[in-house]
Design a protein that fits this description.
single chain, about 140 residues, mainly beta, five-stranded mixed beta sheet, about 10% helix
């Protein structure tokens, strides 16, 4: 019994002394505001159309991750997600990028798009809304 306890204690001490945190990248995932958008005047049911978006990354340590596109009934929430390498040496030169969001009008009701614009002083998300009717 003493051998089992000694073995368990030895394994526990060995694993607790391992420091594998240095092997993992120090990354931050965040939402990026949409600087500008150009939405079509209307959609045609069953057809594809393009919403032109612009976003900015704050420095050369931030990278595009993906577009956040959430469905809520007839509402679509749109934002960009970025990854920032917190351990890298960064130059604070914001760069603006273009993105073409292809939308297929699969509903006959009007679309309400909510474009993420950042956060207010309380940390709440701020959106700019636009309605695109479907013909």
């Amino acid at each position: 019994m003493k051998k089992h306890i000694l073995l368990f204690a030895s394994v526990f001490v060995f694993y607790s002394c391992l420091n594998d945190d240095n092997d993992r990248p120090n990354l931050e995932f965040s939402f990026v505001a949409i600087d500008e958008y150009i939405a079509p005047v209307s959609f045609v049911f069953g057809q594809k159309d393009t919403i032109k978006l612009k976003y900015s990354l704050k420095n050369n340590c931030s990278y595009f991750d993906n577009i956040y596109y959430e469905y809520q009934d007839t509402t679509r929430i749109v934002a960009f997600r970025a990854i920032t390498d917190l351990d890298a040496t960064c130059a604070d030169d914001a760069t603006q990028y273009d993105y073409n969001l292809i939308v297929t009008a699969t509903q006959q009701e009007d679309y309400l798009f909510k474009f993420y614009k950042g956060e207010d002083a309380n940390g709440d998300a701020v959106f700019e809304e636009v309605v695109v009717p479907v013909n």
